[in-house]
From TrEMBL:
Protein name, entry field: RNA polymerase sigma factor SigJ
Listed PANTHER family: ECF RNA POLYMERASE SIGMA FACTOR SIGI-RELATED (PTHR30173:SF43), SIGMA 19 FACTOR (PTHR30173)
Organism, scientific name: Streptantibioticus ferralitis
RNA polymerase sigma factor 70 region 4 type domain segment(s): 115-161
Subunit composition and interactions: Interacts transiently with the RNA polymerase catalytic core formed by RpoA, RpoB, RpoC and RpoZ (2 alpha, 1 beta, 1 beta' and 1 omega subunit) to form the RNA polymerase holoenzyme that can initiate transcription.
Annotated stretches, region: Disordered: 81-100
Swiss-Prot/TrEMBL keywords: Sigma factor, Transcription, Transcription regulation
InterPro entries: ECF_Sigma-70_Domain, NTF2-like_dom_sf, RNA_pol_sigma-70_dom, RNA_pol_sigma70_r2, RNA_pol_sigma70_r4_t2, RNA_pol_sigma_r2, RNA_pol_sigma_r3/r4-like, WH-like_DNA-bd_sf
Residues in RNA polymerase sigma-70 region domain copies: 11-74
Family statement drawn from the similarity comment of this UniProt entry: Belongs to the sigma-70 factor family. ECF subfamily.
Gene3D superfamilies: 1.10.1740.10, 3.10.450.50, Winged helix-like DNA-binding domain superfamily/Winged helix DNA-binding domain (1.10.10.10)
Keyword hit for Transcription regulation: yes
Amino acid sequence: MHDHDRLAEQFENFRPHLRTVAYRMLGSHAEAEDAVQDSWIRLSRSNADEVENLPAWLTTVISRICLNVLRSRAARPEDPVGVHLPDPAIRHEPSHGPEDEALLSESVSLALLIVLDTLAPAERVAFVLHDMFHLTFHEIAAVIGRTTVATRQLASRARRRVQGAREADSGGDFATRRMLVDAFFAAARSGDLDGLVAVLDPDVELHADGGLALASATAVIRGARLVAERAALFRQPGVTVTAVLVNGAPGVLVDRGGVPVSVMGFAVRQDRIAQIQILLDPERLAAIDFGAFKA
């Protein structure tokens, strides 16, 4: 096997990890994939014989790439729509069991990714690398160009910011979460406003992202009564709801007459739905193969 082929094989073995790092930093599947490909280009152009620890080297490289992407985002004008949800990670929902609990514990919720989007670039990189991938502050400092002490402070500040997201998505095992989601849609279909309010946390938040095409549907709505009223959409005829995992937790795909309408994720606190995330953007929905999730 030629050296280049051997290097390519090693990179492919590490690709899933790199994709995971990039997704948690960027919240975008497309940008994460671009970052992975950029990492390969940099590796293929480097003197790989001088790399003592390839996984560590690649993690550093992709982290710097993601940091540049985050800085570029921060320099752009503010999103005119006002609400932008991270790309959901969608999987088939397996049968209930211990493997589901593992998915819940290992995945990064949309609620957390929403908060990560509010962090400064260096804060996000420091938090993700330390709290999610357990790099030392000394290693992270070399990535973001700060001192070890400053890096520790960045991660600590980010940790305080994300604590609320963790609390908002801290309740219920897999079966409880699915039961709450099913109860939400059962009440919505029947127009049972009181039933909807009963499964919602009093301070529930609904984050809807319609993109530029559906800017009028984009909103953040707070409070159980207002969120319950918004659920009237699901009383319309021809709406089909398919159970899936959204970022490791029970969620749904929604279509009307075979046309994708939304992806919905749910956060649970104290056996009540504390946050609902709805991706309505037709352009981003078009990238999802809804048919692959149909029974």
